[in-house]
Amino acid sequence: MMLRKLSVGLTLALVFSAAVSEAAAQERTVIRDRKAAAMLLGKHKMSLQWISWDYFGTAAVTNSRGLYRIKGEQKGRGAEKGAYVLIDGVIRSITAKEFVFDGRIETFVNHINNGNPCVREGEMTFAITGKRKYWRLQQMQNPCDEVTDYVDIYFRGA
To answer: Does the pLDDT of residue 7 top 70, yes or no?
Structure first.
């Protein structure tokens, strides 16, 4: 009887350990292009066109145990004082021309959404198109108003 309990306990421990290992393995960014992943790591300029293309915020991409994260903000000045864009989440995959982000983007611009913040959550894609020197959010339609948002993350040195 004691041996059977030990066997069941050991089996449960192994199943639990395998489940934890599988979950940990899934918490890694899928990298399909190493050069693009290296280009994405680090500190970048960031912008929302409603705030400014003349001055920028920053977004930092980090790698912890194979999981890439992005966190950043841009804040308005002058006429756009109080406006902001925030980004925070994990990067699920990286290819030569895009990365898939899973997290939250919050924007606030006085003349959009009746002056209320707008939150996007979930999976979103940033892509490089043409010869542009930035990744642009592909889900451009603001979910809170009838406007198009250009959320851009610029190449380092661009």
So the answer is: no
Q: Over pLDDT 90: what percentage of the chain?
A: 81
The answer to whether 51 and 76 are in contact (CB under 8 A) is: yes
Three-state secondary structure readout of 84-150:
EEEEEEEEEEECCCEEEEEEEEEEECCCCHHHCCEEEEEEEEEECCCCCCEEEECCCECCCCCCECC
* Domain assignment of residue 11, yes or no: no
Number of domains into which the chain is organized? 1
pTM over 0.70: yes
Which range marks the domain in which residue 150 is found?
A: 30-154
What is the spatial distance between Cα 35 and Cα 29, in angstroms, rounded to a whole number? 14
